[in-house]
Amino acid sequence: MNEQTLSTIRIGKLPAAFICLAFLNFTVGALLGVIMVLEPSAWGQYGSFHAELNPFGWLSMLIYGMTYAVLAIIAGLTLPWPVMGWLQLIVAEAGVVLILGAAQMFSGSLLRYGLEFQALSPLLFMVNILSTVFASRRKQKQVSARDRATDAAQRLANFVNHGTEISSGQMFERFFGRPDFVKATDRVAQKGTELALFCFLAAAVWALMPALHDKANGFYAMPSASVLLSYYGWIAGTVLMVSLHLYPRYAGFRVIKAWQAQIGQILWFVGLVASAFGMVGSPLIMQTGIQTIGVSFTWFALFYLAKMRHACKHTPAPSTIAWWGSWIFALILGVSLVFGLNPLSLPALHLLFLGWITSLVYGVGYTFFPIILGREPTSMRAATIQVWIALVGAVFMSGGFYLLEKDSAMQSVARVLLAVGGCLAAFSFFVFLLLWIFGNKFETHDQISRFDQYSNV
Description:
Layout: H1 3-8, H2 13-38, H3 43-75, H4 82-105, H5 108-141, H6 145-159, H7 166-176, H8 180-213, H9 224-251, H10 258-281, H11 283-311, H12 317-338, H13 346-373, E1 375-376, H14 380-406, H15 411-437, E2 440-441, H16 444-454
Antiparallel strand pairs: 1-2
Helix pairs in contact: 2-3, 2-4, 2-15, 3-4, 3-9, 4-5, 5-8, 7-16, 8-9, 8-10, 9-10, 9-11, 10-11, 11-12, 12-13, 12-14, 13-14, 14-15
C-alpha cells in the first residue's frame, strides 16, 4: 500500500473539524459536569449548558463528522460544493454557542436565533448528503459497469500491492466495502438513519415554533416532545443504525438478520412517534410509546449481547470491554423504560448518553480510529483501564441519580456516588483524549499489520 493509498483512508479536514469541535464541546461539558456533581448548588446555573453541550455540541457534531468521514472512506463520496460542509459546521456550532449564551443571559431573543441555527444545521446536513449522493450517481451513469468494476479492483489492488497478504485486502473490504453478509442490514440501517435525521428536523422545528410566537423576551423551556425526538430519535436512532452498520463488520459475520433488525427499527420509530405526540395530550399513548421504545432497545441489546462473545474475538481489548458495557447499559435502559422510567429523567439520560452512547464511542474509537487515522493509542493497557474507569463512572452516576430521585433516605449516598462517578467519567474522557493526542503514528507496513491483527477472515 503506497503513501497515496494510505492518505485516501484518512479523514479529510471537514470531518476532522467536526470531530475536533465535538471533543472540544465535550471537554467543556465534562468540566461543567464535574463542577455540578461536586457542588450541587451549581446545577441551576450550569444544568442547561450541560444539557445543550452533550447532545448537540458533542454527539451531534460527532455524528456529522463521522458520517462525512465514512461516506468518503466507504464510497469515495465527497461534497460537490465543499463550502456547504463548512457552512454547516459554522451553523451547527453557532447554534450551540447562541443557545449557551441565551441560557447565560436569560435571553429569549438570543435563544430564538440559536434555535434557528440548530434547525438549519440538520437541514444543511441533509442537503449536503443528498447532493453528494446525487452527484455520485450522475458520475456513475457516465462510467460503464466494466469500468466501475475495474476501478473497484484497482482500489483493492492498490491496497494490497507489493505482495501484501490478501487478508489485509479482505479487512479493507469488510470495513470500507460492502461484503455480502452486510448488504441486507445495511439497507435497514440506511433507512433508519434517514428516519433519525427526519426526527432531528422535526424536533428542531418543534422547538423553534414556540420561540417564534413568543413575543416576550423571557427564556422558556424546550417542549418535552422536541427533546424526546432529539435524544431518542436523532441521537439514539443514529447510534442504533451506526451499530447495525459496524457490528457485523467487526465480527466478520451476520450478527442479526435483516428482518430482526427491521422489527427493532419499527418498534423504535412507532414508539417514538407515539410518545412524542402523546406528550401533547394523551398520557396513555405517551407511556405506551415510551415502553415501545424500551422494547426496541431491549430487542437490539439482547441480539447483540448474545453474539458478543464470538463477535469480539478479534477486536482490541478496550473495544471489546466498551462494546459489552455499552450494550449492557442499553439493555438496562430499555428494560427500565418498559417498567416506567421517565425517558427524560436524569437516570435515564445518563444511562443513554454516558453509559450507552459514550461507551460505544470508546468501543468504536479503539478499533476504527487506528484504521482510518494511521495512529494508535500510546498504550492499549492504559486504554483498557480508561474504558473500565468510564464504565464504573457511568454506573455510579446513573445509580446516584436514581437514588437521588427515588429514595430520600439515601441522599447522602447518592451525592457521594455522583461526585465519584462524575470525576471518574470526566477523568476517563480526558485520558481518552490524551491517548490519541500523544498516540503513535505508524508507517504503511505497520498499518497493514493492524488490518491483519483485527481481521478474523
